[in-house]
Amino acid sequence: MHQAEHSLDEALDPERQVVDYLMAHPDFLARHPEVLSAIEVPHGIQGAVSLIEYQVRLLRRQLATERNRLVHLIARARRNEALAIRLHGLILQLMVVKDPEHLCHLLRETLLREFHAEALAFKLFARATLESRPHDPVANAFADFIDRRNALCGPLSSERAVALFGEGGTGIHSAAIVPIHADGQSGIIAIGSADATRFSPEMGTDFLNRLGEIISQKLRTVHLGNCEPH
């Protein structure tokens, strides 16, 4: 009776069932290699690793790397899709803006929210004024950048922060600078953050570049006027 109960216990043991199944189907791992890459197969001799075990470990590491890369690509694609949707929404709103005050309010509210920023500044200069090299601190500090076509992100010196954002610039430590080129005017839009790592040189600028082009186009029909730093 005791022997029969022991046999029944073994028969109902999940591990025993797995062993029995594998013994009855020796080609199981060949038909399901994904199982082999997911289980631990230790070698019987301490300090030594069989060729098969080494290959399995290598395969597992490669698989983990590819999975991480895929997760990263999917996350980036989702972020880009979300940015594209928000950019499209901004374009639709810009299409109906007809006065400088509304334009200033829309850009300030949207950019501060989308970039989780604390400061925003618009600096536009007539090209003739830029060519004369005025004593404007912003024009002097960003004269070389204004002629660029691509946005720039990174840490911001205290001098440039104050020049851009006024007294509130003392607490701004990084920024995204977007060049603006409209009819007869050139300048920048500066988006500032108190976080020194919020805007870094490694950040992609495709979204910012498109944003600059869209705003530049809008400024051909609606002048920004006086839009003081936030």
From TrEMBL:
<protein>
    <recommendedName>
        <fullName>Phytochrome sensor protein</fullName>
    </recommendedName>
</protein>
<dbReference type="InterPro" id="IPR007435">
    <property type="entry name" value="DUF484"/>
</dbReference>
<dbReference type="Pfam" id="PF04340">
    <property type="entry name" value="DUF484"/>
</dbReference>
<dbReference type="InterPro" id="IPR029016">
    <property type="entry name" value="GAF-like_dom_sf"/>
</dbReference>
